[in-house]
Structure formats: C-alpha cells, structure tokens
Automatic annotation (TrEMBL):
It is found in: Cell membrane. PROSITE patterns: PROKAR_LIPOPROTEIN. GO terms for cellular component: ATP-binding cassette (ABC) transporter complex. InterPro entries: ABC_Gly_betaine_transp_sub-bd (IPR007210). Residues 31-176, 195-296 form the ABC-type glycine betaine transport system substrate-binding domain. It comes from Alkalibacterium thalassium. GO terms for molecular function: amine transmembrane transporter activity; carnitine transmembrane transporter activity. This is Glycine betaine/proline transport system substrate-binding protein. It comes from the Bacteria.
Length: 299
C-alpha cells in the first residue's frame, strides 16, 4: 500500500466558486452582450500555487484586450463544476486548462490561440532527483530514468479515476500495458524494502503519474511514500534533499521559474512525457479562436 504523507503546505484553494452574475446590461441585451460582459470579465482558474495560475497572470498583463479581465482562482474541482454547468446550459466560459486532462475526453473544448506566446509551445514533463540519489539508490534511479509514457496514457488513468480510486485506475493501466512497464525495470536488480520518498503535486495528472511509478517501484521491492505538495515546496525539498525524486515537473513554462531558482541543486533526469499543453480553454461552441478575441470594456 503506497503511503501518503500530510501536505507540507496549507491549501490556498477555495472550495469552489460560482460564475459572477451578468451585469444589468448583459441581462437586458442577452446574446447582444459581449463575452466579457456575460462573464463579468472573469477567467476561472484553479489553485493559486499552480504554474498555470502564474502564467495566466502574466497573460493578463501582456494582452492589451485583457486589461479589464481578472483571474479568479478556485480549485480543479471547482473549475470542473463550472465547465459542467456552462456546457449544460450552452453558456460562455473561459478557464485555465491543460492537457493531459480528462475534461477533454468528457467535453468538446478548445484552446484559444496565444499570439503573444505567453503559454509557450508544447511542454515536457521531467523526472528529477536530489543530488546523490543515483549513487545511493542506483536501482530506483535506473527505473525512474527509464520511465516514459504518452499523454493518452495519463489521460486514460485520469478518466478511469472518475469512477474508481486512482490506485485502482493505475493498477488496471499497468496490467493493460505490461510490455511498456516491464521495459522500465528490465535488467534492474530487485531490492528488499528499501525506502524511497517521491514528491508530487496534488492534481489529477500527477496523481496518475505518481501512482503508476510508485506501484512499479513497489513491485520491484521498494517501500514508497508519496508527498503531494505545492510546486514551490517540491523544488525546494528536492534541492535540500528532503525528497528523493519526482516525475511531476512541467517545463519549460509551467514550473520553469522554480527550476531556474533551484536547478543548480537538482538533478534533471530528462523527459518522461512529451506534448503537454497549457493555455486558456473555452467550449467548442463559443465563436472565438484567440485570446485576442476576448474583448475589454472599452472595445
């Protein structure tokens, strides 16, 4: 059984949020009201500590047409509630989004084009460790170095986990993909109860990856503990040797600032997933395609 330690950071996320009511003009004019009026110039976000939250704040400053808009932080669950409600009523909505995420399996959504490039190109998920980890735990290091999978793999686990626990969804995925997971441990000696602490983030995408790699390590004889913490805490913990390794960081944009701050004291073991994307997301039925289509009050 994989153990989870208490969070080292008190969550800043609110329990959820409701879209602000449309202003009087929007209520009177209905469909004639601008998207901004209908949404009270509010983008629905997730937790304050998430990298996409910080990047979206940068976007608000970079785009002239977003001068009247604000980002309202919530939680991932709160964001999903807003998507479900908006789509059920075919209402406009702008949220911070990323792939892999099961919302793209459940709903017809699209990323808005980002002409200013604030959200960057496709991202990469990296495996990292503390300094000295390879020498002290060579078998674990080798398995983690071999760990590599696809966006669709993670997204499948996230979707399945809506109807079961994440550990069960991960276990099912492992059994269905034994050729791949066996390649991660091929030729590596088993150990007998050696303890290893992995750091991760408290979000569904990272719950999927941490469960998979934890179960593979446990099958190989390791006693695994997973600590789910805020990204800033994880990078600091790696740099200070308080956790052994992680398969969670998104680079170069989402957590790039933390790597710049702590990178000299962390071992970057390389990419374990390609093709992740972050940005602003809207329902497919909305007749806009770019962040520049989000109008401000003065337009």
């Amino acid at each position: 059984m994989i153990k989870s330690t208490p969070l080292k950071l008190v969550s800043l996320a609110s329990a959820g949020l409701l879209l602000a009511a449309c202003g009087d003009d929007a209520a009177q004019n209905g469909e004639d009201a601008s998207i901004g009026d209908q949404l009270d110039y509010t983008i629905t976000g997730i937790e304050p500590g998430a990298g996409i939250t910080e990047t979206t704040e940068q976007a608000l400053n970079a785009y002239d047409n977003l001068g009247d808009w604000e980002l309202e932080t919530s939680s991932t669950a709160g964001m999903m509630g807003q998507i479900d409600s908006a789509i059920a009523n075919e209402e406009p909505l702008v949220v911070t989004g990323w792939t892999p995420h099961y919302k793209f399996e459940m709903y017809d959504l699209k990323f808005l084009e980002d002409p200013e490039g604030i959200y960057g190109d496709s991202e990469f998920v990296h495996t990292m460790s503390r300094i000295g980890f390879e020498e002290e735990m060579p078998e674990a290091y080798a398995i983690l170095e071999n760990f590599s999978w696809e966006v669709d793999d993670m997204q499948q686990i996230m979707l399945d986990a809506q109807d079961m626990e994440f550990d069960e969804a991960a276990s099912d995925w492992i059994e269905e993909n034994r050729d791949l997971t066996d390649s991660w441990v091929e030729g590596i000696d088993e150990v007998d109860g050696q303890s290893i602490e992995l750091g991760s983030f408290p979000w569904d995408s990272e719950r999927a990856s941490s469960q998979v790699i934890s179960q593979i390590l446990e099958e190989h004889g390791f006693d695994v503990t997973v600590s789910n913490v805020d990204p800033s805490i994880l990078f600091q913990a790696l740099a200070q040797g308080e956790v052994d390794a992680t398969v969670a960081p998104w680079l170069p944009t989402t957590q790039g600032a933390y790597l710049e701050q702590y990178g000299d004291d962390i071992v970057d073991m390389g990419v374990n997933m390609e093709g992740t994307v972050i940005g602003l997301v809207v329902p497919e039925y909305m007749d806009i395609d770019s962040i520049e289509d989000l109008t401000g009050e003065t337009e």
